[in-house]
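quick one if you have a minute, typing this from the bus. theres a chain ive been looking at and ive put its sequence and its fold in token form underneath. please have a look and point out which stretches look like helix strand or loop to you. anything you notice is useful, everything is just below.

***
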Amino acid sequence: MVKSMGNLKRVEKKMAQIERTVHVERKNRNGMKQVLSRENLLRALKQVEKNKGSHGTDGMSVKDLRRHLVEHWDAIRHALEEGTYEPCPVRRVEIPKPNGGVRLLGIPTVTDRFIQQAIAQCSRRSLTHPFRNTATGFVPVEEDTTR
């Protein structure tokens, strides 16, 4: 009887682990749906275009991003959904410091910046939402950039 109780507790513990895993996976899938939603992607694209910035290791400029996404979006989206997307290496640049040293800067590709922006927008929204009514410090207001 005691031995079967121990087995039952182990089975219950394992079931709880499985339920938590399924919950996290379901939550991740829903999160990726938000990241890949049309509205979120358009906001991310506009923000990356607004920020401009330099090219990454692939040499593609921000001006070429829309055309690149139109041509390659199906493959990029599939890789993101499957969890197989891998960012490109960053371009390393040395920025001189006033004291004579240098600061290393890593510049991601424009495509990676677009994906990072789309993820950050969703992360920021989900992380700040619970605190919006009780925050005493600065909580950024999301502006509607889809217009």
